[in-house]
Write a structure and sequence with these properties.
With 457 residues, the chain is mostly helical. It has two domains: 4-231, no CATH class; 272-454, no CATH class. Helix content is 81%, strand content 2%. The longest helix has 43 residues, at 314-356. The radius of gyration is 22 Å and the shape is globular.
C-alpha cells in the first residue's frame, strides 16, 4: 500500500503526542477535505451572493439544484465507482498499468451516454418554465459530476489522497472565483461557475491519471469482459449511496416537511440544516477510520496474504489473522470513542454554537440524534471496507440493501409520527444496518483461514 499509508505509518511511529496528533490531523484532512471544501464553497457562494442576485430566492434555487445534482450523480455512478476501482486494483496487482487509462475511457463512454440521455429527458419534461441556459448547465453539471466521482474514487483507491485534496482546493477555489464573477447573471451565472469548477476537477484528475499510467491505446472495453465475478459491486455501490440519501429524499418530497424550489426539486429546511451540521461531526471519526484502516488493518492484511502466497507456516498465518481481528475491533472501538466524544461536545455546546451560526437552538435535539445516525453510518462504512478487502461482495450487497430499506422505512415513519421524531428514523435505520454488518464482519474474520484455503467462496 503506497502514498497515504506510508505517510500515516511514518507519522504514527513518532514517540510524542504531537506526532500522533499530526498523524490524525493529516488523516482527517485527506479523508474529509474534498467534501468539506465542496460544501463550504457552495455555502460561501450563497452568503457572498446576497445582495447581488435578485431576488434572493435564486440563491436557494442554485444550492438546491447543486445538491440534487450531487445526490443523483452519486447514486447513478455508485456501481461504476466500485467495479472500475476493483478492476484497476486487479490490473495493477498483475503489473499491467497500461490498462488503466484505456478502460477508464471505455467506462466513461458507457457511463455518460445513458446519463446524457436521461438528464436531457428529465430537464425537458420536469423543468417547465426554466431557461435553456439553466437546463443545459444542469445536464452538463450532472455529467461532469459523474466523471468527478469515478475519478475521485479511483485516485483515492490508488492512495493519491493528497493529489485529490490539492485538485479539489484548486477546483472549488475556481468555483468561488468564477461564480462570484458571473453572479450578476443570476442563478445561471452561479451554476456556470460551479460547472466550470467541475470541469477543472475532471481535467486535473484526468491529467494526473494519464501521467501516472501512460496508456498504450486510447479506448478499451476489457473492463466489461473481466467483471463477471465482480458484478455484485454494482448493486452494492448504488444501494450504499441511495441508502445514505434516501432519508433526505423522503423529507424533501414529503408534503409535511418539504417545499418545492424549482421544477420538481424540493428541499426541507427543517431537516437539511441539522443534517448538514451533523455530517460535519464525522470529520474526527473519518480521521480515525482512515488511520486505523491504513496503519493497522492493512498492515496485518498485507502480512497475512503475503504469508499465504509465499507458503508461510500455519502458526504465522494464524497470528496475522488474529492481528487483523484485533486491529478491526480496535478501529471500531476508536471510531465509537471518537464520535461519542464529539457527540458529547456537540450536545454540551449546541446552545452556544447554533446561535453563533444564526441557527435556532430548537434544532439542538434533532442535531444530536442525527449525529448519532452519522456515527452509526461510519461504523457501517468501516464494516463494508473490511468486507471489500476480503472480497465478500455478496455480504456487502446484503448490508447496503438493509441500510437502504431500513433508512427509507424508518425515515418515512418519522415523517408520519411528527416533528418530535424527525431524525430518529435515520438513526434507527443506521442502527439496524450496523447490527447486521458487524456480526457479518466478525464471522468472516473468524472463518478467514478456512475460507482462504478451501476456496469455498
Amino acid at each position: 500500500m503506497a502514498g497515504i499509508g506510508f505517510e500515516l505509518r511514518r507519522l504514527s511511529h513518532s514517540e510524542t503526542y504531537l506526532g500522533l496528533l499530526r498523524a490524525y490531523a493529516y488523516a482527517g484532512i485527506v479523508s474529509s477535505g474534498p467534501w468539506v471544501l465542496s460544501i463550504a464553497a457552495i455555502l460561501m457562494l450563497g452568503m457572498l451572493s446576497i445582495g447581488f442576485v435578485i431576488p434572493s430566492v435564486l440563491i436557494t434555487q442554485f444550492q438546491v439544484s447543486v445538491t440534487w445534482m450531487i445526490a443523483l450523480s452519486l447514486i447513478y455512478t455508485g456501481g461504476f465507482q466500485l467495479i472500475y476501482t476493483r478492476y484497476v486494483a486487479d490490473r495493477l496487482f498483475e503489473r499491467r498499468p497500461e490498462c488503466v487509462v484505456p478502460n477508464l475511457n471505455g467506462a466513461m463512454l458507457v457511463l455518460l451516454l445513458p446519463a446524457s440521455l436521461l438528464a436531457s429527458v428529465a430537464m425537458l419534461m420536469l423543468f417547465p418554465g426554466t431557461s435553456a441556459a439553466y437546463r443545459l448547465l444542469m445536464i452538463t453539471g450532472f455529467m461532469l459530476l459523474c466523471m468527478v466521482w469515478v475519478l475521485t474514487v479511483l485516485l483515492s483507491g490508488l492512495k493519491q489522497f493528497r493529489a485529490v485534496l490539492t485538485i479539489y482546493m484548486a477546483g472549488y477555489g475556481a468555483v468561488i472565483v468564477l461564480a462570484l464573477w458571473l453572479r450578476p447573471f443570476g442563478m445561471e451565472g452561479l451554476l456556470a461557475g460551479f460547472v466550470a469548477g467541475q470541469l477543472l476537477l475532471v481535467l486535473g484528475m484526468s491529467r494526473l491519471i494519464w501521467k501516472e499510467y501512460p496508456p498504450t491505446r486510447l479506448v478499451d472495453l476489457d473492463f466489461f469482459r473481466r467483471q463477471k465475478s465482480r458484478l455484485w459491486l454494482i448493486p452494492a455501490g448504488i444501494m450504499f449511496n441511495a441508502g445514505a440519501w434516501v432519508d433526505k429524499f423522503i423529507f424533501w418530497l414529503s408534503p409535511a416537511t418539504g417545499k418545492r424550489i424549482i421544477g420538481v426539486l424540493h428541499s426541507s429546511v427543517i431537516y437539511d440544516t441539522p443534517t448538514f451540521l451533523a455530517y460535519l461531526t464525522i470529520v474526527p471519526g473519518m480521521a480515525v477510520f482512515l488511520f486505523r484502516m491504513e496503519v493497522d488493518f492493512v498492515h496485518a492484511y498485507d502480512r497475512y496474504f503475503n504469508l499465504v502466497r509465499n507458503g508461510g507456516t500455519l502458526g504465522a498465518i494464524e497470528q496475522q489473522r488474529r492481528r487483523m481481528i484485533i486491529s478491526a475491533r480496535h478501529g471500531i472501538r476508536d471510531i465509537l470513542g471518537t464520535q461519542g466524544l464529539t457527540l458529547l461536545v456537540l450536545v454540551a455546546f449546541a446552545r452556544a454554537i447554533l446561535p453563533a451560526l444564526n441557527i435556532s437552538v430548537l434544532y439542538s435535539g434533532q442535531l444530536a440524534i442525527i449525529s448519532v445516525g452519522v456515527m452509526l453510518q461510519l461504523l457501517v462504512m468501516a464494516a463494508l471496507n473490511i468486507l471489500f478487502y476480503l472480497d465478500d461482495l455478496r455480504e456487502t450487497v446484503l448490508i447496503t440493501a438493509v441500510m437502504l430499506l431500513a433508512n427509507a422505512a424508518c425515515s418515512y415513519a418519522s415523517t408520519v409520527l411528527g416533528p418530535y421524531y424527525y431524525g430518529y428514523g435515520f438513526a434507527a435505520g443506521m442502527l439496524i444496518a450496523t447490527v447486521v454488518a458487524l456480526p457479518l464482519v466478525n464471522r468472516r474474520l473468524e472463518r478467514l483461514n478456512f475460507e482462504t484455503f478451501m476456496h469455498t467462496r
